[in-house]
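Researcher: I'd like a candidate sequence for this fold, 312 residues long. If you have to choose between options at a position, lean toward the conservative one.
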């Protein structure tokens, strides 16, 4: 039988070691990333054992009578190692369902890990979701490039990159996170009437914890930052977490210069470069201009899927 063990802080090292050796884990699942916003969520992450061996973990939080995997993460679900096989995953889901029902949970919100983050194939959970009659209720469109096999740039994108070169802008890795977040805040306010998920202080804290995974690349003109991109870097994927430029930066094609550098130089050996999602309203609204901008770099669609399983 599989045993379900709720996570507690004394298991931190064991949890992190399992993520490091997993086939579909990324640094976002380390406890010292997840727990930075622990005050916002009622954590109920789970660890699964069979014959005294840890076979999987699931980041999670409880909200009313739901278990969400996880409310503070873009994606979550079951993280497993190379020993996870289909029949074992089916057994795990049966045990998970029984356990959650026993503590009064009526619904699971399951955020599947997109395949681009898998070190080896890891979609056993998708089959388990199907058998448990999970409902796909949200699908976000992200735009992804494989640098080794990237498609051609659009003519407009080529022109913008040349304009950036004529403006003699400089692209480099930057540590001025506060300056960039101010640009990001203004962009989101003007464009979407929103605020960034992270404050400058939170980003700096996370960078201090994960200096090899969270990086800022920025464009400068005469020492003035024109725009930047914060990258969340995992083993296979460089993901653009934040992208923004000032008005002057837009005039000088600052972001085109950065993307050209990241895709064709800095991350040319990555399996994927992911621009992030262009959807809202649970995937029902596609920002046509935004997705077209990303696709003009040669990106094409990767979906981020969300499921519901009713337990009653």
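Model: Candidate sequence:
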């Amino acid at each position: 039988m599989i045993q379900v063990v709720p996570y507690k802080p004394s298991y931190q090292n064991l949890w992190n070691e399992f993520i490091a050796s997993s086939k579909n884990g990324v640094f976002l699942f380390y406890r010292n990333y997840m727990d930075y916003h622990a005050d916002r969520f009622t954590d109920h992450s789970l660890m699964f054992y069979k014959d005294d061996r840890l076979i999987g973990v699931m980041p999670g939080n409880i909200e009313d009578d739901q278990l969400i995997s996880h409310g503070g993460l873009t994606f979550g679900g079951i993280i497993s190692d190379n020993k996870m096989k289909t029949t074992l995953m089916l057994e795990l889901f049966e045990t998970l369902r029984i356990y959650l029902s026993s503590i009064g949970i009526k619904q699971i919100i399951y955020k599947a890990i997109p395949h681009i983050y898998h070190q080896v194939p890891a979609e056993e959970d998708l089959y388990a979701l199907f058998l448990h009659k999970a409902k796909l209720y949200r699908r976000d469109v992200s735009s992804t490039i494989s640098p080794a096999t990237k498609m051609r740039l659009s003519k407009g994108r080529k022109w913008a990159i040349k304009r950036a070169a004529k403006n003699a802008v400089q692209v480099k890795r930057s540590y001025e996170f506060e300056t960039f977040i101010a640009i990001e805040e203004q962009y989101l306010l003007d464009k979407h009437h929103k605020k960034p998920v992270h404050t400058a202080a939170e980003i700096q804290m996370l960078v201090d914890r994960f200096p090899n995974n969270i990086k800022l690349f920025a464009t400068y003109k005469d020492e003035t930052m024109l725009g930047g991109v914060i990258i969340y870097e995992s083993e296979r994927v460089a993901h653009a977490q934040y992208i923004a430029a000032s008005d002057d930066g837009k005039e000088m094609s600052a972001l085109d210069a950065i993307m050209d550098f990241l895709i064709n130089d800095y991350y040319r050996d990555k399996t994927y470069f992911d621009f992030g999602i262009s959807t809202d309203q649970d995937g029902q609204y596609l920002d046509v201009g935004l997705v077209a901008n990303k696709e003009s770099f040669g990106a094409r669609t990767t979906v981020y899927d969300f499921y519901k399983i009713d337990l009653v």
